[in-house]
Amino acid sequence: MRASPADQTILDRRNLDWYIDKVVQVLVFVGGISAIIFIIGIFVFITREGIGFIFSSWDPIEFFTSPRWAPTSSHNPTYGALALILGTASVTGLAMIVAVPFSLGAAIYIGEFASGKTRESLKVLVELLAAIPSVVWGFIGLSILNPLIIQWFNVPIGLNVLNAGVILGLMAAPIMTTIAEDALKAVPDTYREAAEAMGAARWQVIFKVVLPAAKPGLLAAVLLGVGRGFGETMAVLMASGHSINIPTSIFDSVRALTATIAAELGETAHGSDHYQALFVLGIFLFLITFLINLTADLVVRGIRNR
Amino acid sequence: MKKATLTLMLFALVACGRSDSPSRTLIQNKGSDTLVNVAQAWAEAYKDVDPNAAIAVTGGGSGTGISALINGTVDIANASREMKDSEVEMAQQNGVEPKEWIVGYDALAVYVHPDNPADSFNLAQLAEIYGEGGSFETWDQLGITVPGCDSREIVRVSRQNNSGTYVYFREAVLGTERDYKLGSRDMHGSKDVVDLVENTPCAIGYSGFAYATDHIKMPCISTTEGAECVAPAVQTAVDGSYPVARPLFMYTNGEPTGAVAEYLDWIMSDVGQCIIQKKGYAPARSVSCE
């Protein structure tokens, strides 16, 4: 039996509210998956720009083993990224040596010892530190740390691994502190209460109970700091000396992968070998930071599932 | 470069504010950091000549300007080096026919810290310092003791590898077959080179001589050992006696017409050429300025 037109109007609930509901549903859905769309879009874009080079004239052995990054050489252009990779790695490594004790110490103090106003104001200050733009950090490295390093260590130039590592460490510390503190907070209070009931002192509670329980979260904090270090550009460009060099001491100038892309991409003709080689560096960076973040994520997931 | 961006923004504001006057034309001018100061001076002075033309000047480097010309986003590209054949080809593929204008000459000075006693260099010495395989690593090898430079290391300051200055200095000092030694500190602007050398006793750097300050030293340059040592100056660049002087270029898409043609004619006139001379560069031909 067919419904009469009158019945259809009653059954059809497609009024204005229904449409608004649909539109909002779509918007929320798009918002929800937008991160995935963007990340796939970015990956497709950088791959498309660099893939031609990978298949035509890319020499992976040269890329990973030669320090000679000379894309604009008139007679013998080479694309060795070893010095750039080691530059990024050395700066990030030193940054972690600086940042890990600082941020874990800060997280333990904020999470376990400080209370009331001290705790709140410290949290705000740490977050404020994270809001300092990277170019300002670079400026500090260039104009304050550079002369100090020359003066203190009597080295010819203060733009080096030490300078960039310290700057990067200070930059990575706030985000690491925040995540590490969250990890400590995620340890149930019953653990602490149980330990104290067994007669454990405050430090024993922290070192034997809370830290082991929060270990995956702390590891994730460190890994995210490493990811931040790998990806940072401006501060490293300004503080590292931007010099193609395999570092043998912390007083050597180096050059980072990110800084190379930033310095050279703007002046390179679209589609040239040099342009594509810079995108290959971009793909490489993307894969590394992706792996680091993925590892951090899996580690965090590890705690939740336990 | 920041100043250039600011100027561009100001021009953009001005252009927006006056969009009611239909005859106003905007000329996009982009490229070499070396030329950016002059290009701005020209743009500002030209306001009095033709109030209906707005010239937006941005820096970024010769490569940036040439890329922009190839992609058709600028009217005039500034360059401190000649366009490469590959770039001309790429432009032609995009339907752009680059036309070259030599608007002046620039002398590249070699800079050292004011405490450095070095007064002169010859091209062979510079090649040993900067060139791949070159043997000079310490100031001792040059017979120079630099006060405040205890490590004796020659800190080589260079430019990022696609700047016109980088390419030209390589050509003039190392020749076409030799590359730079790795490990130089590659600065991102003409002024950054001067800033770093000024503050670093061990350093040696090269940059346009118009960027000199009172706190830096410019040794004279001779072509070979024993030859006459010429100091970088407007005069020596014009008469060709200074060995590291280069032409400065502007590129347009084909034979320019209308406002762009008028602007370039004005740049090549005595008034325009006196402005480039006043900025510390050598004019394209000898002019008498007051």
Mean pLDDT of chain B: 86
First-last Cα distance of chain A: 58 Å
The CATH class of the largest domain in chain A, by name, is: Mainly Alpha
Number of helices of chain B: 10
What is the makeup of the main sheet of chain A?
2 strands, antiparallel
**Measured distance between first and last alpha carbons of chain B:** 30 Å
Query: How many domains comprise the coordinates of chain B?
Result: 2
* Spatial extent as radius of gyration of chain A: 26 Å
Percent range for helical residues of chain B? 25-40%
Structural class of chain B: alpha/beta
How much of the sequence of chain A is in beta strands? under 5%
Going by CATH, the architecture of the largest domain in chain A would be Orthogonal Bundle
| Average pLDDT level of chain A | 88
SSE blueprint and pairings:
The complex is a heterodimer of chains A (306) and B (290).
Chain A: H1 5-11, H2 16-56, H3 60-65, E1 69-70, E2 78-79, H4 82-113, H5 116-130, H6 134-153, H7 161-185, H8 189-197, H9 202-231, H10 234-239, H11 257-265, H12 273-305
Antiparallel strand pairs in A: 1-2
Chain B: H1 2-17, E1 25-31, H2 33-49, E2 53-58, H3 62-70, E3 76-79, H4 85-93, E4 98-112, E5 120-122, H5 123-130, E6 155-159, H6 164-174, E7 185-187, H7 190-199, E8 203-208, E9 220-222, H8 234-238, E10 245-253, H9 258-268, H10 270-278, E11 282-283
Parallel strand pairs in B: 1-2, 1-3, 5-9, 6-7, 6-8
Antiparallel strand pairs in B: 3-10, 4-8, 4-10, 4-11
Question: Can you give a write-up of this model?
Answer:
With about 300 residues, chain A is an all-alpha fold. Chain A contains twelve helices and two strands, in the order αααββααααααααα. In chain A, a hairpin with a 7-residue loop joins β1 (about 70) and β2. In chain A, α2 crosses α12. The termini of chain A are far apart. Chain B contains ten helices and eleven strands. In chain B, β1, α2 (about 35-50) and β2 (about 55-60) form a beta-alpha-beta unit. The radius of gyration of chain B is 20 Å and the shape is globular. Chain B is α/β, with parallel strands linked by helices. Helix content of chain B is about 35%, strand content about 20%. Chain B has two domains: about 25-105 and about 250-285, Periplasmic binding protein-like II (D-Maltodextrin-Binding Protein, domain 2), CATH 3.40.190; about 105-245, 3-Layer(aba) Sandwich (D-Maltodextrin-Binding Protein, domain 2), CATH 3.40.190.10. Chain B has helices at about 1-15, 35-50, 60-70, 85-95, 125-130, 165-175, 190-200, 235-240, 260-270, 270-280, and strands at about 25-30, 55-60, 75-80, 100-110, 120, 155-160, 185, 205-210, 220, 245-255, 280-285. Mean pLDDT of chain B is about 85; it is low at about 15-20. In chain B, the strands form two sheets. In chain B, strands 1, 2, 3, 4, 6, 7, 8, 10 and 11 form a nine-stranded mixed β-sheet that branches. Classes of the chains: A mainly alpha (about 300), B alpha/beta (about 290). At the A-B interface, β1 and α6 of A face α3, α4, α6 and β7 of B.
